Amino acid sequence: MNKRNKIIYWIATLWLSLGMLSTGIVQLVKMKQEGEMMVHLGYPMYLLTLLGIWKILGVIAVLAPKFPILKEWAYAGFCFAMTGAVFSHLAVGEGAKELFGPVLLIVLTFVSWYFRPADRKPALLKNQADGNAIH
What we know:
Radius of gyration: 16 Å
Shape: elongated
């Protein structure tokens, strides 16, 4: 991996981790504004706890060395959670202001995933990148 790609990876990953960790904590402690948003979107309050835990665990998985399969699941979870947030906000008629955060986190998820170093990819993906796909 060249230096430019490594810098892109770490900038995207750190911003993604900060965004997911901060929103995860806010959801876990059930801040008033977050609770009001969940009610407005039509979701039960217990979903805040679940999302908060998953986001925090996802950040740990993405930042921790090794465990490449777990990282794939964390990236997928981030994508599912944030696309769900976008569609939820659209479903209740909200505009760009409410979509900015989730869309930014989706972009950061894809950039971090795409630029991740080889040692953070599952073995099958490393082999395919080297032209040695397992058949």
